[in-house]
Amino acid sequence: MNAAPAAGTTWLRTGIVVALLVAADQVAKALVTGALERGETRELILGAKLVNTRNTGVAFGQLQGGGVIVGILIAVAVVALLAYVARNARRRWVWLPAGMLLGGALGNIVDRVREGAVIDFVKLPHWPAFNVADTAITLGVIALLLVMEFGDGASRRG
Fold first, then answer.
1. Is 120 a catalytic residue?
2. 134 assigned to active site
3. Domain residue limits at 96
């Protein structure tokens, strides 16, 4: 049976995931903004498009133009996540969703500070445009739910 990680190990791993995700997100956004003019679209495959657009809301365009409300929601979510990780730092795998969620949030915050909005560049049919950070946040939520349910290696049901 694997021992629970030390709290310091959890924070280090979380930080590494955050750094990798922010770097990947910002590099992808720089490549897209360097290749496409704002508002430009390029067809990819199976209806997927590469776009250069801005989002003033939260993930997938929700709360568009929300301004201060969006900032408050992001701050509350980040503080709640940090508190959860602090309380559960010895739980196996908590570092992965924490890093994904914090890295995604930070990647989009960088855009908000620099651009006043988030740069989105992937557009699928019948779905709002999104980016690497949005993907990390979405997968991070799923991973966090799995860690909350199964992260200690024992089933809560029996």
1. yes
2. yes
3. 7-150
